[in-house]
Amino acid sequence: MIGPILIVEDQPQEAQALSELLRWSLRPAVVAPDLRTARRRLLELRPSVIILDLNLPDGDGLAWLKELRSRTFGWNFTILVISGRTDPDQIAEALLAGADDYLTKPYAPQELLARITVAERLAALRAGFRWLTAFRPPLPGPGRYASAGILILRSPEGKDREALRLEWAQGVRHLRQADGMPLPLPDGSLLALFLSVARALEALRSFPFLWTAVLHVGSVELGWLEAPGFAAGTIIGEAIREALRLAYLAPAGMRLITEVAYAALASPPLARPWEPAARIAGLPARELPEGER
Q1: CATH number of the structural domain 5-125
Q2: In this structure, how many other beta carbons lie within 10 angstroms of the beta carbon of residue 289?
Q3: Where are the beta strands (DSSP E) in the chain?
Q4: Distance between CA atoms of residues 181 and 201, nearest Å
């Protein structure tokens, strides 16, 4: 499974500010104050995004960046360099060494969050590329899906990695059998698209594991980048972002259905409103009771 954003920063105040900003935006973050810790965290957490400072107490961040990109797994991460080095030659050197983006200090919080969004988009594309390279499912035609049922499933924290891997594989098979199109998310969760909310609800009801889930509905743009022997997919749209926002907000094991998805059902199940969805995320949703799981 893929973990939170890894912040490699030796200055405590800057690391804390970065961490709090990411958590405020509902993105889990872990700080590594030096390269030794960063190497350990990398293996433990398997982050999809790394925020890297270049001036570190036990080595040069640029050298570690080159080392990462030289490894087999080194392109599994999206790397955003944040540094006080402002010389154009130094910036160019970092980008040519493998950095996906570069932000100079001091930076505006809104710019950082925008660049993190771009980094996550690239991480999702890479994750989709790896998954599709391995499984090569039948690919739908690119285009606009006006009323796709969107199901987001997040695995529980603190579970044995091998057990989670097996659950993830079984979950993919289950979603396919339910006529859904599953795709991975950067944090190791699953996203599946269905032709209707009703089919997505059926898949959720019979999902074999108690993962946090959000069922939503809305317009989705689907596109594919293909070449001989591989394919990579991108899924975008406000409905996807809304469902993800709720999925990160919901407690472990909770299963939510948004009001718009609830209203789309011909025979909606009993479900009580979950107030934090509207108050915090601005997206009203209902919690499916135990009997609906």
Answers
A1: 3.40.50.2300
A2: 12
A3: 5-8, 29-32, 49-52, 55-56, 59-60, 78-83, 101-104, 143-154, 181-184, 190-194, 212-227, 230-236, 255-258, 272-273, 285-287
A4: 14
228 phi, psi to nearest 5 deg: -55, 120
pLDDT in tens, the chain (293 residues): 345 899 999 999 999 999 999 988 888 899 999 999 999 998 887 788 999 999 999 999 999 999 998 886 777 789 999 999 999 999 999 999 999 999 999 999 999 999 998 888 777 667 666 655 555 555 556 666 676 899 999 888 767 767 777 888 899 899 999 998 887 775 667 888 898 999 999 999 999 998 999 999 988 776 665 554 444 555 667 888 889 889 888 998 999 999 999 999 998 899 999 999 998 888 999 999 865 54
**Residue 47 DSSP code:** B
Residue-range domain boundaries for the chain? 5-125, 137-292
Which CATH architecture best describes the domain 137-292? 2-Layer Sandwich (3.30)
* 130/260 Cα distance (integer angstroms): 33
